[in-house]
Amino acid sequence: MTYELVDPRGAMPAGERRLATRPGSMEVRVLGFLSNEAEHMSGPHFPRYTRVMEQIFRKRFAIDDVVHETKPVLSRPATTETLERFRECSAVVNGLAK
User: Fold this and answer.
1) Per residue of the chain (98 residues), what is the pLDDT tens digit?
2) What is the predicted pLDDT for the residue at 48?
3) Domain residues for 90?
4) What's the number of domains the chain is made of?
5) Among 46, 43, 33, 41, CA closest to 97
6) Minimal CA–CA distance to 57: which of 83, 20, 92?
7) In whole angstroms, how far apart are CA 82 and each of 19, 86, 98?
8) DSSP character for 97?
9) How many whole angstroms separate alpha carbon 94 and alpha carbon 32?
10) How far from the centroid of its chain's Cα atoms is residue 76's Cα?
11) Is residue 51 part of a domain?
12) Does the pTM exceed 0.85?
């Protein structure tokens, strides 16, 4: 029997997209987390996951401050006010857990 692995993102032409530049460990002084989902009590939970990541990052890097924000609506872009809170961040982690 033969199995075919299918990427749910579809075909991505080579060279069209690339990862953002990753800062070196000494460059991250303020770290930001933007959650695309609100706090909830059960199931996968990105805001709770960001708190675990924060602990790991604080142990590995000399981080002075961390900014946590949550988008009010998953399907809409973050507001200008929310994005403004990340202005001083050296790096921002964005995501959701589903």
Assistant:
1) 676 666 666 666 666 666 777 766 666 789 999 998 876 666 678 888 899 999 998 888 889 999 999 988 878 888 999 999 999 998 899 888 77
2) 85
3) 26-95
4) 1
5) 46
6) 92
7) 23, 7, 22
8) -
9) 8
10) 16
11) yes
12) no
Side chain identity at 94, as an amino acid letter? N
Hey, CA dihedral for 72, 78, 84, 89, is it positive or negative?
Answer: positive
Residue 1 belongs to a domain: no
**Which of 91, 82, 95 lies closest to 45 in space, CA to CA?**
95
CA 66 – CA 33 distance, rounded (Å): 8
The owner of tokens 């589903």 is 98
Q: What is the pLDDT of residue 54?
A: 93
Q: How many helices (H) and strands (E) does the chain have?
A: 2, 3
The predicted structure's pLDDT at residue 9: 62
In a domain, 6, yes or no: no
